[in-house]
Structures are given as structure tokens and as C-alpha cells.
């Protein structure tokens, strides 16, 4: 008779041990990498590679990791919009647009050229490959936020440029996807832009009004926290509904809630703590 009914096989599939291993990595990776003066985000990426199916295959990339990955990306973009200095952003929006166009066009053109001339791909395949080079996310934003640099002018310009680059890359992706589905016609761009503009109007017009009403009516901190999370993922879900990536909706939700949530407040502290301690790291 065995005192302990315990067996260990790889990859680990038991939810308890999976979550334990993830938390251990989140706890110790920054400590170890900090001694080497390497940003903890790099440690998370390296640890993920090592324990994944292309490393030691300790854990499988199942639906739970995909869920947390999407939640983490949404949360990064949401916090970027929430912590942005709106006055400075308005003054430098032209610089952000120009920066975003350059960071999109230069990798895009180089990617198309290299795909066709070096790899020998066709135009459509090269454009699709180049759109991956042209888009980027704010994966290093938690480090910027941790050091209190999120309200610098250069950071605001970078965030605005990132949104522009991601939007353009996703529109290219939607166009190529429509080509293969046979849904691209002369009105494709018109309908896509109209849907995107209408959704942006809904988020910008209704989210602040709903937020003001809720914060005035309910002062419970837990309810306010859950409400903000609901707004983030509602924005992301609506953006995916019209064929775009949900991170744009999460970013817009952060922008419109920016004035409603003081930068020095218990609610902001909770939002930053939960994101930096769990959602963003697991992503």
C-alpha cells in the first residue's frame, strides 16, 4: 500500500502543479536575472522557452496559457492607455503618427523585399510575412511603468506609434484573410473603416458615461475593480467582433477611462498590482 498516490510525468498536466511551477518562475526569474542586471521580462521569455515544448517540455502550451497570454497583452495595452499623459499626448499626436508610420513602413518594405528576393515567396506571402515584422507590442512597458517613466514624452510618442503600427498591420492581415475567404471586393476597405470608426465612436462616447455613472453609484473597491476589467475585455471583444485585434479595444478603454481613474488612487494601485504581479507576467 502506497502512503502517497503520486506519480510524476512530463509534461506536467495537473492544474495545481502547473500553476505552482508558473508562480515559482515568476518569483525566482526576476531575482536571478536581477543579479545579472538583465531585465526580468527577458528572464520570463527565456524561462518560457526552457519549460515549453521546444525546450525541456515540462509544460504544454494549452488553452489556459493562451488565455493568460491574451489577457496579459490586453492588460499591457490597457495600462498604457490608462497611464498616458493625455495633455502631452495631444500635443505630440502628430509625432506619434509619424513615428508609427515609419516603424510600420520601413520593416514592411524591407520584409516584402526580402521575402520576394531572398526567400523566393510570392507577393501575397511576402506581404503577410512583412506584416509580422511591421507590428510590435509594448512588451517592455511594465519595466517603464515600474521605474515611473510612463508619462515621459518619448514614451507617449512610442505608445501612439505602436498603436498606429499595430492597426496598419492588422488591417493588412484582415485584407489578406479576406482574400483567402473570398470576401474582398471593392467595398472591403470602406466597410472595414466604417466598422472600425463606428466602434471607436461607441467606445469613446459611451464608456466614459457608463464609467462616471458606475463610479458615482458604487464606491465598493472590489466592484470598481471588476467593472474596469469588464470594460477592458468588452472593448477587446467588440474590436475582435469587427475583425480587428482586441488589444486596440483594450487600449481605447484605457484612454477613455484615463480621466476617470486618478493616477494616485487605491483603484489605480490595484489595477497596476494585479497586472504586474500576475496577468502580464504569465502572458
Automatic annotation (TrEMBL):
GO terms for biological process: proton transmembrane transport. The keyword Thylakoid does not apply. Residues 24-280 form the Cation/H+ exchanger transmembrane domain. It holds the Pfam family Na_H_Exchanger. GO terms for cellular component: membrane. One of its GO terms (molecular function) is antiporter activity. The keyword Cytoplasm does not apply. Keywords: Antiport, Ion transport, Membrane, Transmembrane, Transmembrane helix, Transport. The chain crosses the membrane at residues 16-34, 41-59, 65-84, 96-113, 119-143, 155-180, 186-206, 218-235. It is found in: Membrane. It is a multi-pass membrane protein. This is Na+/H+ antiporter. It comes from Bacteroides reticulotermitis JCM 10512.
Amino acid at each position: 500500500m502506497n502512503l502517497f498516490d503520486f506519480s510524476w510525468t512530463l509534461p506536467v498536466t495537473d492544474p495545481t502543479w502547473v500553476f505552482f511551477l508558473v508562480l515559482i518562475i515568476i518569483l525566482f526569474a526576476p531575482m536571478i536575472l536581477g543579479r545579472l542586471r538583465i531585465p526580468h521580462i527577458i528572464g520570463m521569455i527565456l524561462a518560457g522557452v526552457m519549460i515549453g515544448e521546444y525546450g525541456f517540455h515540462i509544460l504544454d502550451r494549452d488553452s489556459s496559457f493562451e488565455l493568460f497570454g491574451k489577457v496579459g497583452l490586453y492588460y499591457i495595452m490597457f495600462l498604457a492607455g490608462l497611464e498616458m499623459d493625455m495633455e502631452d499626448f495631444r500635443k505630440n499626436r502628430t509625432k506619434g503618427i509619424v513615428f508609427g508610420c515609419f516603424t510600420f513602413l520601413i520593416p514592411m518594405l524591407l520584409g516584402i523585399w526580402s521575402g520576394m528576393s531572398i526567400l523566393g515567396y510570392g507577393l501575397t506571402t511576402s506581404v503577410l510575412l512583412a506584416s509580422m515584422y511591421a507590428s510590435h507590442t509594448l512588451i517592455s512597458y511594465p519595466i517603464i511603468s515600474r521605474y515611473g517613466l510612463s508619462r515621459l514624452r518619448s514614451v507617449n510618442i512610442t505608445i501612439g506609434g505602436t498603436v498606429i503600427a499595430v492597426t496598419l498591420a492588422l488591417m493588412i492581415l484582415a485584407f489578406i484573410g479576406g482574400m483567402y475567404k473570398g470576401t474582398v471586393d471593392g467595398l472591403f476597405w470602406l466597410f472595414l473603416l466604417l466598422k472600425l470608426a463606428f466602434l471607436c465612436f461607441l467606445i469613446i462616447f459611451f464608456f466614459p458615461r457608463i464609467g462616471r455613472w458606475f463610479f458615482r453609484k458604487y464606491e465598493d473597491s472590489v466592484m470598481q475593480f471588476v467593472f474596469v476589467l469588464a470594460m477592458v475585455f468588452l472593448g477587446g471583444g467588440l474590436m475582435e467582433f469587427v475583425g480587428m485585434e482586441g488589444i486596440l479595444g483594450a487600449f481605447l478603454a484605457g484612454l477613455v477611462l484615463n480621466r476617470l481613474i486618478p493616477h494616485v488612487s487605491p483603484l489605480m494601485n490595484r489595477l497596476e498590482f494585479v497586472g504586474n504581479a500576475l496577468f502580464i507576467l504569465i502572458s
